Backbone:
């Protein structure tokens, strides 16, 4: 690979920064540390202001929002699958101009939602009528950030242009791994030894963004005035889904035929947002697609997922 | 080296020293808790209560001095290597 090509892709330093942001990103932002990754559109490993992006030639753009501890490299298909990425395929086959977002995944989902809403507002305002449709694609935490942004910008100029949103393995009802971590730290705290308390305190340094995944927090009210380390306290408030868009939830099934474990990170129940009666306007089961054989990571980079997205878009 | 890389290097420099500072404070807290727990148990023996209280005060003072010196040295080193880093970044 030529040096120029290599520089255009996120390298090991970028991956390290993304992982560090996932773990202590809230602290990095709070202390204005240079390793904090502010939210921005990224192309060829460079941040680009929305005003510097050309208008989409077809009027259609798709925004890709990655998940915890990742960056836009997440979307690249592994070598065994041709096609590049969902962004490349959506552009080549359906005329959507891809826009990849990179952000600090250690911040609160609601903070990132607010930043995404502001970023899209700037993009939509700059291009005006040249932008007719926005397609939003979020993997894992990215889906929660999208839902948060849509809610916070419900009166924004860009939300009416969103007709389809794809949530790829997003923990709408929370992630069991984070709940297990929360319970384990409480158990450690109850054992009165220095070693267990040290382990508990170290594990509890994980970022607010990670803790938001416990129950899929979306807005400030979900966590304001609540102890982030309280034992399995679901303080989430119900917020409506964006009424003007179809919400396609793509659910991985790591072990084909074994539904409940989902994609091995997020359960099918959570990824499909099923039984989310507490969330007004929750979309029905008709927009849930279960893809057997795909684990959590594969949902971000697999031709079968793209095929499902293309089908859903063709369906209107 | 572009501005983004420089900013990250400065960030890493700060994170390392923040880590030492917060790490020292974290270990100090647990060190104090361990001392307090041990002292509480020993003080249950009536004959030991008075000497244990004295020893506890001495140990706590030494903990304060030790961890405060770690933080002081860390701050001094941060200034020194921060200065060196800035000089290097200006050259580069």
Residues:
């Amino acid at each position: 690979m030529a040096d120029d090509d290599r520089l255009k892709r996120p390298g090991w330093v970028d991956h390290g920064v993304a992982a560090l942001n996932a773990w202590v990103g809230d602290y990095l932002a709070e202390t204005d540390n240079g390793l904090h990754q502010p939210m921005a559109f990224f192309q060829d490993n460079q941040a680009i202001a929305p005003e510097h992006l050309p208008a989409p030639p077809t009027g259609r753009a798709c925004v890709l929002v990655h998940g915890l501890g990742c960056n836009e490299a997440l979307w690249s298909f592994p070598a065994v699958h041709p096609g590049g990425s969902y962004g490349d395929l959506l552009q080549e086959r359906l005329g959507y101009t891809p826009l990849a977002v990179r952000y600090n995944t250690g911040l609160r989902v609601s903070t990132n939602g607010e930043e995404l809403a502001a970023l899209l507002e700037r993009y939509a305002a700059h291009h005006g009528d040249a932008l007719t449709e926005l397609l939003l694609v979020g993997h894992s935490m990215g889906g929660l950030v999208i839902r948060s942004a849509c809610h916070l910008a419900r009166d924004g100029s860009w939300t009416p242009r969103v007709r389809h949103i794809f949530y790829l393995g997003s923990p709408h009802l929370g992630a069991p791994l984070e709940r297990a971590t929360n319970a384990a730290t409480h158990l450690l705290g109850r054992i009165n030894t220095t070693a267990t308390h040290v382990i508990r305190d170290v594990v509890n340094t994980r970022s607010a963004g990670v803790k938001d995944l416990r129950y899929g927090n979306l807005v400030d009210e979900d966590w304001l005035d609540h102890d982030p380390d309280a034992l399995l306290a679901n303080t989430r408030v119900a917020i409506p889904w964006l009424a003007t868009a179809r919400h396609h939830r793509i659910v991985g099934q790591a072990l084909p035929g074994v539904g409940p474990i989902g994609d091995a990170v997020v359960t099918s129940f959570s990824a499909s947002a099923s039984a989310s009666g507490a969330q007004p306007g929750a979309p029905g089961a008709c927009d849930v697609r279960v893809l057997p054989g795909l684990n959590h990571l594969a949902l971000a980079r697999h031709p079968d997922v793209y095929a499902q997205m293309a089908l859903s878009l063709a369906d209107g | 080296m572009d501005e983004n890389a420089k900013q990250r290097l400065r960030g890493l420099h700060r994170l390392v020293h923040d880590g030492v500072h917060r790490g020292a404070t974290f270990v100090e807290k647990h060190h104090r808790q361990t001392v307090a727990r041990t002292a509480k148990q020993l003080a249950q023996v009536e004959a030991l209560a008075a000497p244990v209280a004295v020893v506890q005060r001495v140990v706590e003072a030494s903990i304060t001095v030790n961890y405060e010196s770690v933080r002081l040295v860390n701050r001094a080193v941060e200034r020194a290597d921060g200065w060196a880093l800035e000089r290097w970044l200006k050259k580069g």
